[in-house]
């Protein structure tokens, strides 16, 4: 059952699941499922660092007067997503001069995190190329680039 908070509950070792179906089973049918607890494996995570990417890249910016809309054909929130991330990491975004633009600290079981395209001071970023540095404690780092164009 989903908890009242709406939080995601991951299976753990020994959990029991009940499956209901409208399709009949034949006499003698038997099904067995085994679950394993979720875990983070640092050695395999090291090889997965190369799979981290940003979407959309490049990000195509529009007018500053444009506001988010609930209409499906209109532009929504301005954001990028960093994907294929481990449960815990720190993402630092730099301009080409090497100045820190923003820092994102991730500590959850999702594999992505959003960036609102604002600097750490809350200012809109300018058009150009940015570098991102993903630091995964005990695993390693990934460096990449992203573009913001008009």
List the helices and strands and how they pair.
Blueprint: H1 42-48, E1 53-55, E2 59-60, E3 80-83, E4 88-95, E5 100-107, E6 112-115, E7 128-136, E8 140-149
Parallel strand pairs: 2-8
Antiparallel strand pairs: 1-3, 3-6, 4-5, 4-7, 7-8
Can you tell me about this structure?
The chain is mainly beta. It contains one helix and eight strands, in the order αββββββββ. The strands form two sheets. The chain has a five-stranded mixed β-sheet, with no helix packed on it. It has a three-stranded antiparallel β-sheet with strand order 1-3-6, with no helix packed on it. The longest helix is centred in the first third of the chain and has 7 residues. The model has no long low-confidence stretch (mean pLDDT 82).
Notable features of this structure?
elongated, five-stranded mixed sheet, single chain, 150 residues, 8 strands, mainly beta
Percentage of β-strand residues: 25-35%
Could you report the average pLDDT, rounded to the nearest whole number? 82
Number of strands: 8
End-to-end separation in angstroms reads 46 Å
**Biggest sheet, strands in spatial order?**
2-8-7-4-5
Helicity level:
under 10%
Elements, N to C (H/E): HEEEEEEEE
Q: Residue ranges: pLDDT <50 for 5 or more in a row?
A: none
